[in-house]
Design goal:
The protein has 213 residues and is α+β, with helices and mostly antiparallel strands. It has four helices and eight strands. Strand 4, helix 3 and strand 5 form a beta-alpha-beta unit.
């Protein structure tokens, strides 16, 4: 019999920063081992960490916590990145997903896809049409991961000052793992209730999003 999943999702807190930095460092090392240069620029990384702290302060970052209270994964949402998305894309129709990182020790739990599903539900609750991402242009493995989850590659933008720019989207409400949703909070069994207390991206649509990754 398959054992019950014990991990759950909650808003990130300032106390989580060391664990989040450890997740980031682990991801950097793993990416290097796979031959990709994503997150290899220390300056970019420092700017990204600053943005990460701001996301926590603004209530736009979440963590997945394991049975022992350890941080297994993280995800953030943020404003539309005007280096990539234009008025023609109707940016207000989408939720923008950033900084999805899963611990290597938590592989095999489908956490990445389940987190995306939770964001998809949140997007649908807010009446949005899409969940959108931009990823590192050269990380073909990551592109394949998102395509397996149902994202459609729209185009690739190549501004000279950015290394991201592979743009994709998936319809809000679409679920890759409908029978394995993430719990929200240690004592909650639903995936929808937390969306009612989280800030939307309204009011953030025109903020500078440079170097968020």
């Amino acid at each position: 019999m398959k054992s019950a999943q014990t991990e759950y999702l909650r808003p990130a807190a300032a106390d989580d920063v060391p664990a989040l930095l450890a997740l980031r460092a682990e991801a950097e090392a793993w990416l290097r081992s796979k031959g990709t240069d994503q997150w290899s620029d220390p300056e970019t990384g420092e700017r990204a960490i600053t943005k990460w702290r701001a996301s926590i302060d603004e209530g736009r970052a979440w963590v997945v916590v394991g049975e022992q209270g350890d941080v297994l994964a993280t995800v953030s949402r943020g404003p539309v990145d005007r280096d990539f998305w234009t008025d023609t894309d109707c940016p207000e129709t989408a939720l923008y997903l950033y900084k999805l990182i899963v611990s290597r020790g938590a592989s095999g739990r489908q956490l990445g896809g389940r987190i995306v599903d939770w964001m998809s539900r949140l997007a649908a609750m807010e009446g949005r049409t899409w969940v959108r991402i931009d990823t590192w242009r050269t990380n073909s493995g990551l592109h394949s991961f998102y395509e397996r989850l149902g994202f459609e590659h729209l185009r690739t933008e190549e501004p000279s000052h950015r290394r991201s720019g592979w743009l994709a989207q998936r319809s809000a409400g679409v679920l890759a793992f409908p029978n394995n949703p993430l719990r929200v909070g240690p004592d909650e069994g639903t995936v929808a209730n937390i969306g009612l207390q989280l800030p939307s991206q309204q009011g953030h649509l025109d903020e500078d999003a440079e170097s968020r990754r």
